[in-house]
Specification:
The protein is α+β, with helices and mostly antiparallel strands and about 250 residues long. The chain has two domains: about 60 residues, Pseudouridine synthase I, catalytic domain, N-terminal subdomain (Alpha-Beta Plaits), CATH 3.30.70.580; about 160 residues, 2-Layer Sandwich (Alpha-Beta Plaits). The strands form two sheets. Strands 2, 4, 5, 6, 7, 8 and 9 form a seven-stranded mixed beta sheet that branches. A two-stranded antiparallel sheet has the order 1-3. It is globular. The N and C termini lie far apart (about 40 Å).
C-alpha cells in the first residue's frame, strides 16, 4: 500500500495470485511508479514450486479490476530478475494545453497560451550528452549513484502544437527524474527558464531550490527491454494516443 492508504497494483496482483494458489505469493516488479502514473508494459516475477494446468492469464484477468491486465505468463530462469535484469526502460509523458475531459486521466493539462516547443526541444536534445542526473532527483542521497545512461530523448508535438509528447529511454531512472525534467521543460516553454540554465543543472549537478515537478497522470512506462526476453508492448496506446506526432 502506498502513502495515504492508496492501494498499489502490486498489492492487488499479490492478493489475486495468493487467492488463485491458496497460499501467499509475493511479486517483484521491474520498477516503482508514483500514484496515477501509468504502465502500458510492465514485467514482474514471482516464484512457485508447483506447476499449474489452468490458463493463468485468463484466470487472473477475470479476477483483476478493469484497469489492470495480464498479457503473458512466461517461465524464466531463477537468476533472471524483473528489476535488475532490465537493460532499457522507455517512458512517454503527454501534455495537452486545452481542456478536454477525455484526456483528463491520460495526459496532463497545462493551460499555457503557447508553449515554445522549439526551445523545449533544444533542452531535450542535451539530455543524451550527460550522465549524472543528481540535479533531477528528489532524493539523490538515497541512490548509490545518480548516473543514468540516457540513450534517447525526443520531443514531439501535433500539427496544432496543443499536444506534446516527451519520450526518454535509459537503463535506469532516479526518483522523480522524468517528472522533474518535464517540469523544467514546461518552465522553458513558458519562458520562465532558459536552455542555458537547464544545461547548468546538468553540468553543476546542484539540486535546485524548487523542482516544479510535473503532474503524474501524463506519465507512461511504455516499454522494458531484457537480454533474455524479446516481447514488444501489446498496447501501443501510450505511444500513439490517436495523434500524428511530429518530432521537434
Amino acid at each position: 500500500m502506498q502513502k495515504g492508504g492508496v492501494v498499489s497494483v502490486q498489492e492487488i496482483i499479490e492478493k489475486n495470485l495468493s487467492q488463485l494458489f491458496k497460499k501467499p505469493v509475493f511479486v517483484v516488479g521491474c520498477g516503482r511508479t508514483d500514484a496515477q502514473v501509468h504502465s502500458s508494459q510492465y514485467f514482474l516475477h514471482f516464484q512457485l514450486e508447483e506447476t499449474w494446468v489452468f490458463d493463468m492469464v485468463f484466470r487472473l484477468n477475470k479476477m483483476l479490476p478493469p484497469d489492470i491486465s495480464v498479457f503473458d505468463v512466461i517461465p524464466v530462469e531463477p537468476k533472471q530478475h524483473a528489476r535488475f535484469g532490465a537493460t532499457l526502460r522507455t517512458y512517454n509523458y503527454f501534455i495537452h494545453t486545452y481542456k478536454d475531459p477525455f484526456l483528463r486521466n491520460i495526459s496532463t493539462l497545462y493551460t499555457e497560451n503557447q508553449l515554445d516547443v522549439v526551445e523545449m526541444g533544444k533542452a531535450v536534445s542535451l539530455l543524451t550528452s550527460y550522465q549524472d542526473y543528481h540535479a533531477f532527483c528528489k532524493t539523490p542521497n538515497a541512490h548509490s549513484t545518480t548516473l543514468c545512461n540516457v540513450s534517447s530523448a525526443q520531443l514531439f508535438t501535433n500539427k496544432q502544437q496543443d499536444r506534446i509528447r516527451f519520450q526518454i529511454k535509459a537503463n535506469r531512472f532516479l526518483r522523480g527524474m522524468i517528472r522533474i525534467i518535464v517540469g523544467k521543460l514546461l518552465q522553458i516553454g513558458a519562458g520562465e527558464m532558459t536552455v542555458v540554465e537547464f544545461e547548468e543543472l546538468l553540468i553543476t549537478k546542484i539540486t535546485p531550490a524548487e523542482f516544479n515537478v510535473a503532474h503524474p497522470q501524463g506519465l507512461f512506462l511504455s516499454e522494458i527491454k531484457y537480454p533474455f526476453i524479446d516481447i514488444a508492448p501489446k498496447s501501443s496506446f501510450s505511444i500513439q494516443q490517436n495523434e500524428e506526432w511530429i518530432e521537434v
